[in-house]
Amino acid sequence: MKSVTVFCGTGTGNDPQFEAQAYLLGKTLALEGITLVYGGAQIGLMGATASGALDHRGKVTGIIPAFLLEVEIAHPGLSELIVVETMHQRKTRMNELSEGVITLPGGFGTMEEFFEMLTWAQLGLHRKPVGILNINGFYDELLIMIRTMVQKGFLKEIYLELLLVSDSIPDLLDMMVHYQPPALGKRITPDKV
Fold it and tell me: DSSP assignment of the chain, as one string?
């Protein structure tokens, strides 16, 4: 795996482990020679992840919509900063530049980005691994809700195989490197959209 998109919050949350693990993820990606692709900000977990990579000579590509340049404060030390017009263009570009997705703690924006990438996998628009780094159980309730979607008949059980979850960075990266997409049968493919 040569590049990974990381989705995470512009805040740091109220658990010091969130920021510490975000920094460690950036560091780990750098040491593994994996390019970090992320939202371009220097604040919150986004900034911590980028700094972790940059402090260890990693390559970091930030992608940020022009209207967020001042709000999210673009990271000044990036290898590359790509400015786009819309949030959708941001996600599309992040998808184009990466071979997998990792989601850290965050709010509405992080959830929206994560679920869009997971939905694209479900629809067959990409076959990349989508992972959650479940720091201190942050995503436990969300994972219960996803299982509820299966139990209530809104999600096929095989779709659970699209999602990789671990509380360990090395374990999650190993799962992503060895990921084999499930056989989902008939799906939408890019040439049919």
Answer: --EEEEE--SS--S-HHHHHHHHHHHHHHHHTTPEEEE--BSSHHHHHHHHHHHTTT--EEEEEEGGGIIIIIB-TT-SEEEEESSHHHHHHHHHHH-S-EEE-S--HHHHHHHHHHHHHHHTTS----EEEE-GGGTTHHHHHHHHHHHHTTSS-GGGGGGEEEES-HHHHHHHHHT------SS---GGG-
pTM above 0.85, yes or no: yes
Q: Domain coordinates of the chain in residue numbers? A: 3-180
CB-based contacts of 175, cutoff 8 Å, min separation 6? 129, 131, 164, 166
| Amino acid letter for position 40 | G
End-to-end CA distance of the chain: 27
Block mean pLDDT (10 aa), the chain, length 193: 97 97 98 98 96 98 91 89 95 96 97 96 95 98 98 96 98 97 69 43
Maximal C-alpha separation, the chain: 47
3-180 is classed CATH 3.40.50.450? yes
User: Helix 108-122 and helix 87-97: axis angle, to 10°?
Assistant: 50
